[in-house]
Amino acid sequence: MMPTDRKDERRHFSRIPFDARTTLRGADGREWGGALLDISLNGALLERPQDWDDGTHTDLVLEILLTETARIRMEVAVAHVEAHYLGLRCTHIDLDSIAHLRRLVELNLGDPELLNRELSALG
After folding, report:
1. Sign of the alpha-carbon dihedral angle for 29, 35, 38, 41
2. More confident residue, 112 or 29
3. Are 32 and 48 in contact (CB under 8 A)?
4. Beta bridge partners of residue 55, listed in sequence order
5. 41-80 burial by CB neighbour count: b if 16+ within 10 A, else e?
6. How far does Cα 58 stand from its chain's mean position?
7. 3-state class of 81 per DSSP?
8. Which of 6, 43, 94, 99 is deepest in the core (most CB within 10 A)?
9. What whole-number distance in Å separates Cα of residue 103 and Cα of residue 7?
């Protein structure tokens, strides 16, 4: 079972299944590629990179390539690590990236009121 299928989770942000290539960069210069499994206004779930170690990784930047010219870039912190998954929590996102992410969530939710509630929860 994928983590997005858990019925007992109480999430404040809807997770949108989305297939995209990602790059995760650490402040130490390390870089990991991987697949995005889902995204929300508050973070992302990736396939755990094969060379990921469970050491302390800080000041991470996640880039999600949407098109040749559009991407989502967010500063993230590790929220949880599982055998096959890496959960990331967004700590900062720029205006262009939040605009792309908002549109992506809006198209997938199909409910403007739910989107507004989630945006309000971001504070």
Report:
1. positive
2. 29
3. no
4. none
5. bbbbbbebeeebeeeebeebebebeeeeeebbbbebebee
6. 16
7. strand
8. 43
9. 26
3-state helix, strand, coil in the chain (%, to 5): 25, 40, 35
Residue identified by tokens 């989502």 is: 72
Answer whether residue 9 shows pLDDT above 60: no
52-101, pLDDT tens digit by residue?
Answer: 887 777 789 999 999 888 999 999 999 999 999 999 999 999 999 988 98
pLDDT of residue 53: 83
**Which DSSP string corresponds to 103-116?**
HHHHHHH--HHHHH
Q: What is the pLDDT of residue 121?
A: 64
Beta strand extents in 1-41 (DSSP E only): 16-25, 31-40
> Which CATH fold topology does 15-114 show?
Thrombin, subunit H (2.40.10)
